[in-house]
Amino acid sequence: MEALFLLIGISLVVAIIFLVSFLWAVKSKQYDDDFTPSVRMLFDSETKSGSNDNTSN
Amino acid sequence: MKRREVREEVACFHCGDPCESDHTRFQEKDFCCHGCKSVYELLQSCDLEGYYDYADNPGIKTLRAAASEKFAYLNDESIQEKLLSFKSDKLAKVSLKLPAMHCASCIWLIENFRKLVPGVIESRVNFVKREAAFTYDPQIVSLRRLVEQLAAIGYEPELNLESTSKQKTHRGNFKLITQIGVAGFCFGNIMLLSFPEYLAIGEELTIQYRSFFGYLNFALALPVLVYSASDYLRSAWRAVVRRVINMDVPISMGILAIFLRSTYEIFFEGGGGYMDSLSALVFFLLVGKWFQQKTYDSLSFERDFKSYFPISVQLVEGEEEKSIGIEHIKQGDRFRVRSRELIPVDSTLIEGAAHIDYSFVSGESDAVKVQSGEALYAGGRQTGASVILEATKSVDQSYLTGLWNSDGNQEEEHELESFADRVGKVFTYVILFIAFSAGIFWMVFDPTLVLNAVSAVLIVACPCALALSFPFAYGNAIRLAGRKGLYLKNAAALGRMAEVSHIVFDKTGTLTRGSDSKVQVEAFDLTPLGKAVAAAMAAQSGHPLSRMIAKSMKAADQTLPEILHFTEVKGKGLQAEFAGDQYRLGSADFVGNEILNKKTINASTVYFSRNGETVASFSIQKEYRTNLDRLIKSLKKFYSLYLLSGDNDSEKERMQEVFDQKHGLLFNQLPHQKREFVAKLRRQGAVTAMIGDGLNDAAALKESDLGISVADDIFRFAPASDAILSSEGFHQLPEFFDYSKEVLKTVRLSFVLSFLYNGIGLFFAVQGVLTPVIAAILMPISSITVVGFVTLRTTLLYRNKFSQGARGKT
Q1: Pairing of strands B131-136, B92-97
Q2: Could B178 and A4 be called an inter-chain contact, meaning their C-beta atoms sit closer than 8 Å?
Q3: Radius of gyration (Cα) for chain A, nearest Å?
Q4: Which of A48, B439, B464, B655 has the greatest number of CB atoms lying within 10 Å of its CB?
Q5: Does any CB of chain A come closer than 8 Å to the CB of residue B182?
Q6: How far away is chain B from the Cα of A8, in angstroms, using its nearest Cα?
Q7: Mean pLDDT calculated for residue range B764-785
Q8: Closest CA to B547 of B291, B723, B368
Q9: Is B181–A4 a contact, with Cβ atoms under 8 angstroms apart?
Q10: Is the dihedral of CA B206, B212, B215, B221 positive or negative?
Q11: How confident is residue B444, by pLDDT bands cut at 50, 70 and 90?
């Protein structure tokens, strides 16, 4: 049962990694504007720049 | 000729406004005006027709071509330094507020701005804040050109001193989210680690692991206490130091009690502690706070006088003119004010014909004609051609800004004890009393249980329900009220709204719709020539009625006839000569016809005669908001109503009729008089709400317990008030007041709920048998039910009140 100590320790470390990622995501201002990206997604990509999405032939 | 009975409504392809019969047609599309057509052409030439794909008629009507010199000051280096967030030789970045953005098409167009203006590299929109960040090459395009092009397509940026002087970094939200993240992280993990404790698994191995888990719980609870709960602890400390008890005091008491007791149990008794309840409590509290904050992030309420004044003026030195920031204007400086520009400082008129619109200051939109050498005040808007003024004071000392600044300190004194704080106070005392009595009781009967019972009482007495019902009830209510046009600054504002007893109204702009008036022409024998002469005469006069007549009579490009021997007889009218005929424009007896001298209510009539014969009459009506009578009548049932107008008392009778009272309707009120009136009411003990619209109400708005500013465009104009009411929402004012009272009732009901939970918890606590399991179950459940209840009830109330209400338009 000594393994329990180790396991809990590791799981906490993993959890902390996620917490740090969360904090980074917030800091990078991704959540400042949660409306515009949803609209921006729907705009057509330009034909000039040669969009590289999958075109079915 | 057959007359068409049904007139087809043609909508402008660009902006959606209805087109007149003589509108422009271009490429099979209809446009209401040249402006819209030009924007269409411009977009088409740059391959930006996609603009019209994402929304219907997304265009914005550009009212008039901006004076070419309007943005000249943007060439100034010092101004640029304040506006740009980054500048190098090849790269510059600027963030501009574009209040005109309102739809997906706007986002699309602004983000494709580089196609319109070569030199712009990238543009990114933050729609929520109505801002766009531009990256451009200053060697190819200047800031001035960028802004000019934005204005040309209808998205004129809002540039003012406030945006340049303060770079407010919005760090507030980031901190709160981090606190939530940390609290949530610890909450989840502590609960997981507490499972063995709850479920009493593996009793034999418990001792060894119990302490291990205990230490872990302690370690995880530390960040919660020190970081996530820090705001509550600090606020409670500050309150206690000032000998006041606010809502945060019982919360902090609970938090500290849990923490200390748990720490003791973990280290000295090898127990598990109640850290799970602690982190759960903090987590839920913070989520409540975040929910509240989210609601009013999109509107910024913090504006002072600097938001309205232009950034710079043209300084005139001899023959030269250059731009300087308005804070640099000194006494004696001469500067130029162009048409439709605001006067930034108190000054005297040196050169030019000044017709000043003081609606900002006094609410009276009728322009005042100023003679050379006379004084002009900051806040007035020049309606004529450009004039040259000499400053007599600097910006900070001018009358209006003095008014603002003197009120700036009032904010501190306005720490009204809100309902929440009062409850918090009572709650604290009650709990302390119970804890104390429990302690005494056990001291007598079983001293070992004293500490247990006392701390248990402090732990379980969850003000969390109290602390949560407020943010969720009010947060939800504020969000819903916003949907119907009332944007409240914070929960305290809604709370105060429920307590209001007296309401003070401003007239112009608040009860009336804007400052436009309709001129109705009744023609007896009016020829086009006569019309032109009337317009020419009216244009010469500064009298408010004349200006209105001139505005409505004159067609856009018409050249007015040159009239001779123009004279203005004060109080009576105008007379002039043209082509041998004598014309008179004025009151009935002046014009020569006594029979018609009747003034209809809410309209003033001006008569026009040629050679003594009345040929036409012009009736000018002030347009009040629709259903104003109904609104006032329903408010009058519960509140004492007053009217303070900066305008003259020509509308007195009408207002007396609408308000159904003779007292409390005051006219010709200056800003400081309005403030004094509100202050007087408050001194008498009344909770006063002030409803106004302009800068002239600002002092009174600040002075009142609840200041509501009415705006036609909620993004453009908001003096520092507690709430903004849009024009569409105005007619529902009685419903809003009702709703605020209902929301308060909802909160009170939720207290009953929470007392039930507290009662159950205390039942265990005073006996000294409060186990962590019970606490861990009771507290989250009580929080969730309270939150659910208030959210549900406020939503149902909203649906009830506002869906079946009269959907009248103002």
Answers
A1: antiparallel
A2: no
A3: 21
A4: B464
A5: yes
A6: 9
A7: 80
A8: B368
A9: no
A10: negative
A11: confident
Check pLDDT > 80 for residue B716. no
Domains along chain B with CATH numbers: 36-168 (3.30.70.100), 172-297+420-472+742-803 (no CATH), 310-403 (2.70.150.10), 492-512+627-733 (3.40.50.1000), 514-624 (3.40.1110.10)
Q: Please report, as a single letter, which amino acid is at residue B51.
A: Y
Higher pLDDT, B751 or B322: B751
Radius of gyration in angstroms for the set of CA atoms belonging to chain B, rounded to a whole number: 33
Question: What's the CA gap between B139 and B90, in Å, rounded?
Answer: 6
3-state secondary structure of B319: coil
Which string of DSSP letters, residue by residue, matches A4-56?
HHHHHHHHHHHHHHHHHHHHHHHHTTTTT-SSHHHHHTTSPPPTTTT--S---
What are the beta bridge partners of residue A31?
none
Backbone angles phi and psi of B366, in degrees to 5: -75, 130
Q: Is residue B683 very low, low, confident or very high in pLDDT (cuts 50, 70, 90)?
A: very high
Instruction: Please tell me the distance from the alpha carbon of residue B253 to that of residue B458, in angstroms, as a whole number.
Output: 7
pLDDT tens digits for range A3-43: 888 888 899 899 999 999 998 988 887 777 778 888 888 88
Spatial strand order in the sheet of B381-382:
B368-370, B354-357, B381-382
∠ Cα B758 B764 B770 (to 5°): 105
pLDDT tens string B372-391 = 888 887 777 787 777 888 88
Q: Kindly state the greatest CA–CA separation across chain A.
A: 64
Structure token pair of residue A22 = 């969360």
> How many percent of chain B have pLDDT more than 90?
10
Tell me how close the Cα of A52 comes to any Cα of chain B, in angstroms.
19
Residue linked to tokens 């510059």: B92
H/E element holding B767?
Answer: helix B733-767
Distance CA B712, CA B264 (A): 60
Q: How far is CA B751 from CA B425, B468, B738, in A?
A: 14, 10, 20
Instruction: Decide if pLDDT at B132 tops 70.
Output: yes
pTM, 2 dp: 0.64
CA distance B537 to B568: 9
CA distance B544 to B267: 82
**pLDDT one-digit tens code per residue, B181-221:** 999 999 999 988 887 777 766 566 666 777 788 888 899 99
Question: How many Å is the maximal CA-CA distance in chain B?
Answer: 119
C-alpha dist (Å) from residue B606 to B546, B565, B599, B610, B622: 9, 20, 10, 14, 14
Amino acid in the structure at residue B242: R
Give the Å distances, CA to CA, from B48 to B31, B112, B468, B780: 17, 8, 49, 54
Q: Is any Cβ of chain B less than 8 angstroms from the Cβ of A6?
A: no
What pLDDT digit, counting tens, does each position of A21-30 carry?
998 988 887 7
pLDDT (mean) for B514-518: 56
Q: Rounded to an integer, what distance in angstroms lies between the CA atom of residue B530 and that of residue B526?
A: 6
Cβ contact B778:B460 at 8 Å: yes
Contact B477, B494 (CB under 8 A): yes
Q: Which amino acid is at B19?
A: C
Q: CB A31 to CB B182 under 8 A?
A: no
Judged by phi (left if over 0) then psi (alpha if -120 to 50, else beta), residue B388 lies in beta
pLDDT digit string, tens, across residues B19-77: 766 677 778 888 877 777 888 888 888 888 888 888 887 887 765 555 566 677 788 77
Q: pLDDT band at B554, cuts 50/70/90?
A: low
In sequence order, the β-bridge partners of residue B370 are B354
Residue A18 to chain B, least CA–CA distance (Å): 9
Nearest C-alpha in A relative to B190:
A12
